[in-house]
Write a structure and sequence with these properties.
The protein is of the alpha+beta class and 557 residues long. The chain is built from 15 helices and 17 strands. Among the domains are: 212 residues, Orthogonal Bundle (Recoverin, domain 1); 154 residues, no CATH class. Helix 5 crosses helix 7 and helix 10 runs parallel beside helix 13.
Length: 557
């Protein structure tokens, strides 16, 4: 016991003075100024005491987490203790917030009613419920928060529904076994150790939960969603632009925002800027394109007609053009029915494509893959049609995001993340590229605009037109008669040079032979775009021959 006390004392030096003060104050209040907390002070008939919870934890804690904490503090089975001292009470906070991987392993095992032993495997279902209880408690903390940030999200319809909270816990637990979608049965100590080291979201959720349960740094009128120091990254971003929307049609959940925001680069986690909603701004590709350009990094979130919710993170500003843009920070994600992230592979740079009003290139928005085979494809005309390919080499572990390969868009949103890029007013604006003119930068303030005034001036003297040289009486005229005459003898056609006996003929047999070795096709690179274009060409030729009234298969020479 002495070694444990020394170890804890050394660990407590990692806490701030404020943290030490609040941990001690919480213990004194719970123990009623005695040296130990009895289980009866925390648990009544197997349930957490409502009076104590009202004072310290309120309605914030999930009942399952309360039981797990009771397992850690008082033990379980034959080793259960009727009371707990300050050391054990402090360990619960210190190890969850400042603990090493081994210490967090010990907390996890003990909370789930197991002795920490490298040979003991944890049932995956039990670990998943543990994650769900932490996620549920964090969402409860957000929903009971008085901060303007949390209240704005909640009042606009981001509710924190139980089914989505459960999906958040499942997404946290799913990474323990490597393959997210393979069935898990048990978790070894080695798997748990690697999981605790790499799962940043779980660590952040646990820290935020225990900081709140122990009342650390919580002050009256505190506007932060959690009482952590400002330097800590927030899982809930500041919503910018929602205040002006009285009836915002939210189709994603508070749990989705928390999970998605944790996957963004830290520099973009503090703020989401509302840019476009198909319900508010209308189902218009032009409107969407105009509102999302030059806005910096953004997330695109859409819901298909089957209720699947998914999207992509675009790390650079959207801009209309013929080429793919973006970088390797880009990723695609699914939010419902499961939360999954698909990071870039680096295999190609087909991260972002946006184009409109072109005749030779696809008009729409693409993230990943190839033209017509994108991880996400949104058609410009008609707006509302979308597709998600079966495979996409741009993103690792990718699986089709929508329920069906093609779908109708039920809802679509675009959010700018992080601060909006600063425009140097002396230079005008963030420029589009234009290879025609050297040093070109966008000339108008916005990508699209209304013309206030337009003038055209001729420069220099007006050119003199010699009327005697003009062939017609007037510059423009109606044709009364038109003739074309061949001059000289008609050219003789050497029949021996003509390949067929007759100018038109029926094809009796047709063969095509490849010569040399067959070229090797890299299946990962091949997306079928050439094949699709050839097929379209044959179809157009077929229609043309039909329109000309010629039998298909005849060839003219």
């Amino acid at each position: 016991m002495g070694n444990t006390s020394k170890k804890l004392a050394a660990k407590c030096t990692l806490l701030t003075k404020e943290e030490q003060k609040y941990v001690a104050a919480t213990f004194r209040a719970a123990s009623k100024n005695s040296e130990r907390i009895r289980e009866d002070d925390l648990i009544v008939s197997g349930k957490v005491d409502a009076v104590l919870l009202e004072k310290f934890w309120g309605p914030q804690i999930d009942p399952r987490l309360a039981q797990y904490l009771s397992n850690f503090l008082f033990g379980s089975g034959q080793q259960k203790s009727p009371s707990v001292d300050f050391n054990r009470f402090a360990e619960l906070y210190v190890y969850n917030v400042r603990g090493t991987v081994d210490e967090r392993m010990m907390v996890t095992y003990n909370s789930l009613g197991k002795d920490y032993n490298e040979t003991v495997e944890l049932p995956y279902q039990l670990l998943r419920e543990y994650c769900e209880s932490i996620a549920s408690t964090y969402i409860k903390i957000l929903k009971s928060s008085t901060s303007h940030r949390a209240r704005t999200w909640i009042e606009k319809g981001f509710r924190g529904k139980a089914s989505h909270v459960q999906a958040l816990g499942e997404a946290v637990a799913a990474t323990v076994g490597g393959d997210l979608d393979s069935p898990h049965h048990h978790c070894t100590a080695d798997q748990l150790s690697k999981w605790l080291q790499t799962n940043i979201l779980l660590k952040q959720l646990a820290e935020l939960v225990f900081v709140n349960l122990y009342g650390i740094n919580k002050k009256a009128g505190d506007e932060s969603p959690t009482p952590l120091p400002p330097s800590m990254p927030s899982l809930l971003p500041i919503p910018e632009g929602l205040d002006a929307m009285p009836d915002y049609p939210a189709f994603i959940d508070l749990s989705h925002i928390v999970w998605l925001n944790s996957h963004l680069p830290q520099k973009h986690q503090h703020k989401w800027r509302f840019l476009f909603s198909s319900h508010i701004h209308g189902e218009s590709f032009s409107t969407m394109a105009g509102r999302i350009q030059d806005q910096g990094a953004s997330v695109l979130i859409l819901e298909d007609n089957s209720g699947h919710i998914f999207g992509g993170y675009a790390p650079v500003s959207w801009s209309i053009g013929p080429n793919f843009t973006g970088d390797e920070d880009s990723f695609l994600f699914a939010l419902a029915p499961k939360m999954r992230a698909y990071p870039s592979t680096g295999y190609n740079d087909h991260y972002q494509y946006l184009n409109h009003h072109t005749k030779t290139l696809p008009n729409g928005l693409i993230m990943g893959g190839q033209f017509e085979f994108g991880g996400i494809w949104i058609d410009a005309d008609p707006f509302g049609a979308g597709a998600s390919a079966e495979s996409c080499s741009t993103y690792r572990g990718y699986k089709r995001l929508s329920k069906e390969p093609t779908f109708r868009i039920r809802s679509l949103e675009v959010w700018g993340v992080g601060d909006k890029p600063v425009v140097n007013k002396d230079e005008g604006a963030i420029a589009y590229s234009c290879s025609t003119y050297r040093g070109y930068k966008r000339l108008s303030k916005e990508p699209t605009f209304r013309i206030r005034s337009l003038e055209v001036w001729g420069v220099g003297d007006k050119p003199v037109v010699n009327k005697d040289e003009r062939l017609s009486k007037e510059p423009t005229f109606r044709i009364r008669s038109l003739e074309v005459w061949g001059v000289g003898d008609k050219p003789v056609v050497n029949k021996d040079e003509r390949l067929s006996k007759e100018p038109t003929f029926r094809i009796r047999s047709l063969e095509v032979w490849g010569v040399g070795d067959k070229p090797v096709v890299n299946k990962d690179e091949y997306a079928g775009s050439n094949q699709a274009s050839v097929l379209k060409t044959h179809k157009s030729e077929y229609k043309m021959l039909q329109m000309m009234g010629k039998p298909v298969g005849e060839t003219n020479f």
